[in-house]
Batch of 2 targets.
Target 1
Amino acid sequence: MTDPVLSVRNLTVEIPTRRGVLRPVDGVSYDIAAGEILGVVGESGAGKSMTGNAVIGLLDPPARITGGEIHLLGERIDQLKGEALRKIRGKKIGMIFQDPLTSLNPLLKVGEQLTETILAHLPVSQSDAEARALAALEEVGIPAATQRLNSYPHEFSGGMRQRVVIALALCAEPSLVIADEPTTALDVSVQAQIIALLKRLCRERGTAVMLVTHDMGVIAEAADRVAVMYAGRLAELAPVQQVVQAPQHPYTDGLMGSTPLASLGQKRLRQIPGSMPRLTALPDGCAFHPRCQRATDRCRSNPGPTLAACNGRAACWHPLTDEDRAAREATA
Amino acid sequence: MKPLVSVTHLTRIFDVSKPWLNRVIERLPKSLLTAVSDVSFDIPQNSVYALVGESGSGKSTIGKMVVGLLPPTEGSVTIEGVDLAREQDPEKIEKVRSDIQMIFQDPYASLNPRWRVKDIIEEPAVAQGKKPEALAERLLEQVGLAAEDAGKFPHEFSGGQRQRICIARALASEPRLIVCDEPTSALDVSVQAQVLNLMSDLREDLGLTYLFITHDLTVVQHMADTVGVLYLGRLVEEAPREALFADPKHPYTRMLFDAAPKMDGFGREIEPPEGEIPDPINPPPGCAFHPRCPLATDLCKRERPEPRLVGASKVACHHAE
């Protein structure tokens, strides 16, 4: 097996506040291989975006990386600063944000933004860069690309704008793309177009993708492996089919069960009682235990379960087995 | 049985022209945006009617016209036999108005941050001149919060809890119809499940009728009795839920279903739908969907299809069968 494109080990992000230190990301480890799409799911506040931002060095102070290592293509990047970090951003890591309108400069034509990015990262001439910009727009499926190079972002529709953002993220041929909720602001039919585009481009170029989203359907269709986050920690990390159809962590199980699709034909949706704890008041042990039916004394005491301490797949002392799921099916 | 809500030939046109002086100087014509065009449907008592569509399809505009936040340009909304836009008798208007409530999409924007939860929830009752004892406390418990929460402010609650407060407020005037405009779009799936379950329970306990406006097909499939699919301001298909999801007739409905992500669609290679919703100021002639439709013929470019019955569905398409 070849080395992973991105390797995150024990990543910890802390925010010092007057009431103590908050830990929005706590000991997260994962790898992404070339051409692989890793889906990162979780509810708001679970630390998904924070993890992505930490990788590309976009944490807003006072949040900072206080532990762990991030390696990109074998090179350690979590301690880079200033110029060295800027060389990696855009060149080796592309970023796609949720809102396509705010991630484009409204005062520059789309062509200028693309050419500028290409010139900043690749050793090419101005005319080469312009040709590459045109090719990039054509590749993401924007019709009449030659004319559209001279349009401003506001002249594009939401879906077309997100295509431009993808073109921008990919134009310097990065080896990793972080897509943070890329389709949340879009309609269903446009979302399908964008996801298909992202999948195709990454497979063709062998780009590794970290796809952050809260939409289980998108994850099921796009991701190869899924990392489920809860209260800043990894709850489960496994191939997508296992996570969706045979989740081991009770939280993953609850999350999958609460999507309306999973309870089709049933009168009520399965729900997880309670809500995610605030970072200021994390419970001892496993952060999920107050909402978990399987919790025992071991779950309530420190140290809490981690992927490494358990079976390497679900951070849970009492993971769900196939028999557990079968028993529930029978009672439902 | 007479339906609770009856919407007939509802049309809403917005004037989106530039200011008149610019129009005169630049010699521009008036530009009109038809947000809703000739939409008719009925909602029977104690049922859930869902309006689905992408952004710009006019679903929220219809919701606003049903509750009376916007007057219709043409057509009418009749609730309990009273047309709010034309009725003259103030007593009748007041009676019907208190029977309608609305739940909005963003629970962070729809609660006054300076009011206590108690005042927020009781406002609809106070506006009617009623003031039942401990109303807020009772409603809070009904929606799964604690009676002590009545003295708190909205910022002390999470998104899901805020949406419960919005539901409690909607219940305060003892309505019969609740219009829900994307009530769970701003919530996480696990919280969405809690809120949807609460709404189903309330419907059974209180005999409520819901007009459910959403873009999320999975929510529709779970909640709705009847579904209306909107495209560019027109109802393209209307059918009972089972019929619609088992056998969608209109090519647009089919496209929506195919595009929606599936939980078992691992590595699914779909042919993504082509194109986007056209500009509603200059909609295409004939059937508005024809530029994206795989079945389109010359007939579709010339003539707008009228809704007709195909099986259990009412479909506005020349080629549906």
Target 2
Amino acid sequence: MDLPILIGSILAASPPILFAVLGETITEKAGVINLSLDGSLLLTAMVGFVVALHMDSVIAGFLAGMVVGSLIAFILAFVSMTLYQPQVATGFVLTLLCRDLAYVFGKAYAHIPGPQVSHAAIPGFSDLPLIGPILFDQNPLVYLSLMAVILVWFFFFKTQPGLLLQGLGERPAAAYVRGVDVTAMRYLYTLIGGAIVGLGGASFSLMVKPGWARPYGIEGTGWIALAIVIFGGWHPIRAAVGALLFNALQTAANLLQSVMPDVPTQLFSTLPFPVMILTLLLVTIGNADWTKRVLNRLPEGMRRFLIRTLKALQTSPPASLGTIFKKE
Amino acid sequence: MKVELKDIHKRFGPIQANDGITLSIEPGTLHGLLGENGAGKSTLMKVLSGFLSPDRGEIRLDNKTIRFDSPAEAVALGVGMLHQDPLDFPALRVIDNFLLGSPREFLLDRKYHQTRLAELANRFGFRLDPEARVSELSIGERQQLEIVRLLALGVNVLILDEPTTAISTQQRESLFRALSQLTEEGKTVIFVSHKLDEVKSLCSKVTVLAHGRVTGEAAMDCPTKELVKMMFGQVLTVGKRCEVRLGEPILELQNLSLSDWRLEVKDLSLKVQAGEVVGLAGLEGSGQQLVLRACAGLLRPSAGRIWIAHRDMTGRPYQDFIEASIGYMPAARLEEGLIAGMTLAEHIALTERGPSLFIDWTMAVERASQRIREFNIKGQPTTFVGNLSGGNQQRTLLSLLPSQPKLLLMEHPTRGLDMESMEYIWRLLQALTQQGTAILFISSDPEELLERSDRIAIFFGGKVRMMDTCGASLFDLGESIGGKGFE
């Protein structure tokens, strides 16, 4: 297989995880941690497919996925911000609940052919050498997800509401002093984040792997997406790079498997997960005390280089992530 | 802008923080608000800046009655507050902090606002790098940023809450210059402080608060003595403990340096002998807690040594300090000292656990009953500690300390207690000192400090000065807490 096609195939599989990572990044940037991602993706995938099948419209399927995604987010927002219950526990319970709901209500729809989003090459661009097949001969959702990454980046760092959103997650008390209705805005961004995650779920069942089954193949993606949000340092573009990296690892594992057919397939399908943990370690290792001690013993040139690399990789979460804000 | 507060009342549970405060501040003046910890200064300023709504009373700006529902509304009407710990965003850049919440435009025009920020900062001689992260700034620079930001929002009344606690001398001077300049431009500045000399040199008029009431108002040629009287009342307490026989040195601090993120205590040397009681005085957060925690083995000094009973304990683990028979009583009783959801007997079982895997409940209950008698705790071995009153919690905490500690370190041992509990606890402590225990305690009650200690270490912005209590008066102590003799 030649390289452009390979990279194109990595991008083609990326919308679900890209949307999931993007949605969670928005939610966490506001200081709310929505742990229900894995269940949300599964449930919205099922709902998206079923609605699209019944109404014979993929658009309706996507809308349904977004509505369900924000509904799950609403439950989390209500429980944590109105009833002041812990976000992490609520998120866990929602994950399990959504997964079971998806399996129960999806049972009748397993292995049924249904509508799916078709390919749409962009005329004029798709014939360009190298980048044509990578970027412009794709599914509309791939275009949309990449544009969404840029859009969220622009919103975060170039607009006043985006700045307020950052303030919300960093220090809600200070945001409140600056006139932000902390609870209302956290509700809003939790719902928006949930809707985008729902878009990711629906894009799996309507594009990447059309249809529904149990198990379905998206299980586990939500957890990885949560890790990628950390890897991405709550920065949409870096998070997108992380998501694509993970997809590339999965593709690489598949390739390796075809090269070495004797090795059990399970080995390769689990390979991307430990590699992702290692990259995550690289991101946080700079924070540890012992790292500094070890680095101090290295020769000057190497030490400088390593410190600079680790510093560039290092991320820190929104300071008030997962905390509850109450007015005085 | 003229500011008037009329008959402001604000109550938090059992504490009447503001009890009918009436105050009027002329436009274009620098007005000082003076008082001890807990006098009600901060509450009053939070009411004026929209953080708290008063239970009763009226706020008038330029003769118009005003109601704020949030700090943002107060800012919109021209009243801004600079908090002791600036309410900003350490992770964000200076320019983003300046912009956050200010302009109404959707897209951020960082270039344009950068020049606006630079212009305003230059006018007051502040130097702020717009690209720097706020976490890299000192507290003084963060204050400057907040002042500039509030002014850019059109604030006419600026409230500063203890602004000089954590900043350098140069920063303080540049702050004071800026404040004077602001009043010349017609703005009203309210300067909240407990430091007499600062208020005297800076303000044209001062209002003194004590116990939630206005206890005095004066133009600023008022002698210091009068101000001290207004702050601490007329009672003249004089130190009593003149003849105490002291044993050999228990605690020796040699050129100790300590720091946390806002404060540095430098080069402190102190020797405490067996049977001696040393009080640590000063406004909260002047360094007393750092020293106490270092002696307890909870904070590693950045330089210097800690000797306990002739043994060098510097840098040793907390466990070694416990074994050296040091008792530490934190200020936050239920957060750091006791476990609200456990009973008295469970506390005993936890503190005096033996090597056995199983708990000897009979013994724990027996010991708990014994402590209850000994320390006069009003409760049963099965009472949850969270259900005890403050005084009884404090006695419980005392009863859990090693029976005859060499050194006892206490933060606010009698804060929030009634007279009877206070007397009782000091009787217990004095009995200990007679058997050779040395005591170091933090208190914000000047009378308690004078009455109970042999010497007082007065802390002021990380600096320490020793004072003999024998024959010393409340005036002397009050003046020193206010910073006299530190420059």
